[in-house]
Amino acid sequence: MFRPEGPTLRELAVQALSSVEHGYDLLAPKFDHTPYRTPDRVLDAVAAALAPLGPFGTGLDLCCGTGAGAGVLTRLCRHGVTGVDFSAGMLAVARDRVRPAGVPVSWVRADARALPFAPAFDLVVSFGAFGHFLPRELPGLFAQVRSVLRPGGLFAFPLAAPPRPGSAGYWSLLGFDAAMRVRNALWRPPFVMYYRTFRLGDVRRELTRAGFEVTLRPLPEFGRRPDGSPRARLVTARR
User: Fold this and answer.
1) Is the bond into 189 cis (omega within 30 degrees of 0)?
2) In this model, does residue 6 exceed pLDDT 80?
3) What percent of the chain stands above pLDDT 70?
4) How far is the C-alpha of 78 from the C-alpha of 76, rounded, in Å?
5) Ranges for the Methyltransferase domain (predicted)?
6) Cβ neighbours for 209, distance < 8 A, ≥ 6 positions apart
7) At what angle are helices 88-97 and 20-27 packed, to 10 degrees?
8) Using CA atoms, how far apart are residues 36 and 32, in angstroms rounded to an integer?
9) Exposure on the CB side of residue 186, measured as CA atoms within 13 A
């Protein structure tokens, strides 16, 4: 739910009719008061799942937004953390709000599809950003991530199980994606944000094609569905 400090309906409308980059520049000051910010329980669950896989030297928060994922990395990485995002507004908020002790943090404005780094990272994480990439962009995106990881480095992100067909969550996501497709058919520039295009089977296949060894790890904090499958997984892909 939106908090009282969050954006107004008018502000959301203006943002939705902007480009992705400009929309997030506008949203940045109030982003942490919206449901789009990754909940702390997800961040904590991912940190707990990754801790036994370390220690890690340097970490990259891909599409870092206001820096929630960078906060996770400061718990896991000993030598330094970098956050990268293409929204200057989001990075400005991240610089102001993320002030860890003991681990240097830097912020870089760049597109995730053209990362300006050498293979310098031991761990790359990302939270809630993949709806901004069309399915055809995944091979290039995953290739970019692999290119900035050191040999043996890890790419990790949480992925929730899709809502069951016919459920309220299913129809909610379907309706949102349909509305975005209509908006993008009628209005320019496009605003790419689709919740149903990042499917586990496709993601696993493209990660493997990019040269990763993929492992799925249940996040027990979120329990299991009636059929016994996890409600949320951590996808780990090792270079």
Assistant:
1) yes
2) no
3) 99
4) 7
5) 60-153
6) 139, 142
7) 30
8) 8
9) 8
Length of the chain: 239
Whether the Cβ atoms of residue 95 and residue 183 lie closer than 8 Å to each other: no
Helices (H) and strands (E) in the chain — how many of each?
8, 7
The domains found in the chain, sorted by start residue, are 1-37 (no CATH), 39-162+199-238 (3.40.50.150)
In tens, the pLDDT along 182-215 reads 999 999 998 888 888 899 999 999 999 999 999 9
Asked if residues 213 and 53 have their Cβ atoms less than 8 Å apart, the reply is no
Per-residue model confidence as pLDDT tens digits over 84-117: 999 999 999 999 988 777 899 999 999 999 999 9
Measured between alpha carbons, how far apart are the two ends of the chain, in Å?
A: 37
Q: What is the DSSP letter of 224?
A: B
Question: Which residue type sits at 70?
Answer: A
| Strand, coil or helix: 166 | coil
* 77 contacts 51 by C-beta, under 8 angstroms: no
For residue 43, what are its two tokens? 């961040």
CB 120 within 8 A of CB 184: no
Q: How much is the pLDDT for 3? A: 66
At residue 123, does pLDDT exceed 70?
A: yes
Identity of the amino acid at 49: A
pTM: 0.92
